[in-house]
Amino acid sequence: MSKVEEILSELGYVAHHPARMVEQWKKETGGKAVGIMPIHCAEEVVHAAGMLPVGMWGGQTSISLAPEYLQSFCCSIMKAVMEFTMSGAYKNLDAIICPETCDTLRVIPLMMRKAIPQTPIIGVVLPDNRKIDAGIKYTAAEYRSIVKQLEQITGNPVKDEDLQNSVEIYNEHHAAMMEFFKVAVDHCDIITPYNRHMVIKSSYFMPKEKHTVLVKALIDELIKLQPSQFKGHKVVVTGIMSEPDELLEMFGKYGYAIVADDLAQGSRQFRTPAPADDDPYIRLGKRLANFEGCSCVYDPEKLRGKLLKQLVDETQADGVVVLMMKFCDPEEYDYPFIKQDLEEAGIPHLYLEIEQQMESSEQVQTRLQAFAELLEERKN
Ligand code: SF4
To answer: Quick check: is 360 in a domain?
Structure first.
């Protein structure tokens, strides 16, 4: 097995065994773990408290218990989260943080408090006016409030230096991830859509310091290799996530490479560094202020389509695939603007409705195949 294969295999294992990873970390460190719901909750505050932040992005499971709390028209990620909550899958989490970024996420903390009353559920409200001074201060105050609640759980105070250190560790991790995405473009034969996702997903279940080391080692190994002569279709994907695995395998089957992403679970987490400031909470507030192009933050200028065009230009992609999470209102509201911008720029795109629990994949397969043919025709 080559070094690249070894690292990808390790990251793939982590991505598929979140519960085992949390258990192992707790056993090794004696520390506590905190679940973090999507999106825009600064993990750094959990890291600074000496706890393991664990991404809660649903997963593949059959839904039987969740309908007691959630209607059928809620997104499949939150259905999976409630299913896991009720089935006891989150029993190793010592708290859960839930940013109230969409209508569904607004009610999840209330339902979780009822379903698992023994676990502290920490709600976070992020401001719409995130760019003005008052908005930055408000975000900082919300993060301070999380830290206060975490201090009560651990019994240990969190100093500003601890958070500054965590912000630096995360900035380094995020920069490594962005570098990996760039290097991966030259190695589409190895960094398949599935492998690319494993690198992203594993970051949610292990300490960032350790993940950074693995990602940097992967970059070093990839750089040593000859760039691949990829003959398939290079695309940029946008949306909340690119799961399930079955979908990623379909991308591979029809000759696609993902050369850049604008996914909530992907580069939206990594692309905006926390700027310098003496106050670490303000640093995190400023990062949210500087962030652009997500359906879950207020964006009156609708910059997402322009950002996608920029990604297509930078990576010489053939087109864009919009991975529309079914029943996700924020993403659906953004789509008309993205569509208009891509059409004006002459960039072909595919609108693909997905669910984490895909009952039938035939329609998705047909549409991916047809789009691949269209991209092929445009090349000739
Ligand atoms: S933003 Fe969309 S995908 Fe995420 S929880 Fe809300 S509805 Fe679901």
So the answer is: no
203 lines ligand 1 (CB under 6 A): no
195 lines ligand 1 (CB under 6 A): no
The residue type found at 283 is R
- Note down the domain range covering 141: 18-154
The ligand 1 atom at the shortest distance from the C-alpha of residue 329 is 7
Residue 37, CA distances (Å) to 13, 81, 142, 179, 305 in order: 22, 9, 15, 25, 26
Q: Answer yes or no: is the C-beta of 105 below 6 A from any ligand 1 atom.
A: yes
Report if residue 148 sits inside a domain.
Answer: yes
Report if residue 223 sits inside a domain: no
Ligand 1 center–CA 100 separation, angstroms? 10
Q: With a cut of 80, say whether residue 360 has pLDDT above it.
A: no
Within 8 A by CB and 6+ apart from 143, the residues are 42, 45, 124, 281, 284, 285
**Cα(102) to centroid(ligand 1), Å:** 6
Q: Answer yes or no: is the C-beta of 330 below 6 A from any ligand 1 atom.
A: yes
pLDDT above 80: residue 54: yes
Read off the CATH number of the domain in which 133 is found. Answer: 3.40.50.11890
* Ligand 1 pocket residue status of 75, Cβ below 6 Å: yes
Distance separating alpha carbons of residues 348 and 235, to the nearest angstrom: 10
CA of 9 from ligand 1 middle (Å) equals: 30
pLDDT digit string, tens, across residues 112-159: 999 999 999 999 999 999 999 999 999 999 999 999 999 999 999 999
Residue 365 within any structural domain of the chain: no
How many Å apart are CA 299 and CA 40, to the nearest integer?
A: 14
Whether 38 is in the pocket of ligand 1, judged by its Cβ within 6 Å, is yes
Please state, in angstroms and rounded to a whole number, the distance separating the CA atoms of residues 70 and 103: 12
Q: Provide the 10 A C-beta neighbour count for residue 1.
A: 7
Number of folded domains in the chain? 1
Decide the pairing of beta strands 52-55 and 95-99: unpaired
